[in-house]
């Protein structure tokens, strides 16, 4: 089973530098392909990006435990991954978006794992950078450095 990030490592992964590869402006344009299944709606109900309801709301996805959007009916494999501690970060989101079923098979260790997401995107970095703009407040670089230092001491 794939190792799940510790909270200190997750803080580092969620730092602004983790999304340096992607361009959020380009990601907004790329997200138009995602909107057939996904919307981005904030906690107050404000629609940021109108989309479908086949997939879960992606507001706050970066840093969120997998399979936990209230009111969305997930498949068993992603719920199991989330229950085992999977939290979405840039790396595992990129791997998932490139091959959802393969990611869940590897993450859960179940060769029969399935994903309801059938769409695959070869270069998801921009989309991830865009989605990160709607996630929990990113720590400042100094805070990320402190968290990294704490994990190595």
TrEMBL record:
One of its GO terms (molecular function) is electron transfer activity. It comes from the Bacteria. Residues 22-135 form the Cytochrome c domain. InterPro entries: Cyt_c-like_dom, Cyt_c-like_dom_sf, Cyt_c_1A/1B. Keywords: Electron transport, Heme, Iron, Metal-binding, Signal, Transport. Residues 1-20 form the signal peptide. Gene3D superfamilies: Cytochrome c-like domain. This is Cytochrome C. It comes from Aliiroseovarius halocynthiae.
């Amino acid at each position: 089973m794939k190792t799940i990030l510790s909270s200190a490592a997750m803080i580092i992964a969620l730092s602004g530098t983790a999304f340096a590869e992607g361009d959020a402006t380009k990601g907004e344009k790329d997200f138009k392909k995602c909107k057939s299944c996904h919307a981005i709606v904030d906690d107050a109900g404000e629609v940021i990006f109108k989309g479908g309801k086949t997939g879960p709301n992606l507001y706050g996805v970066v840093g969120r435990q997998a399979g936990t959007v209230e009111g969305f009916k997930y498949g068993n494999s992603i719920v199991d991954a989330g229950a085992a501690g999977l939290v979405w970060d840039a790396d595992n989101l990129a791997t998932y978006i490139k091959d959802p079923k393969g990611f869940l098979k590897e993450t859960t260790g179940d060769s029969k794992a399935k994903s309801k997401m059938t769409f695959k995107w070869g270069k998801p970095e921009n989309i991830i950078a865009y989605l990160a703009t709607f996630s929990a407040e990113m720590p400042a670089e100094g805070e990320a450095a402190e968290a990294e230092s704490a994990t190595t001491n």
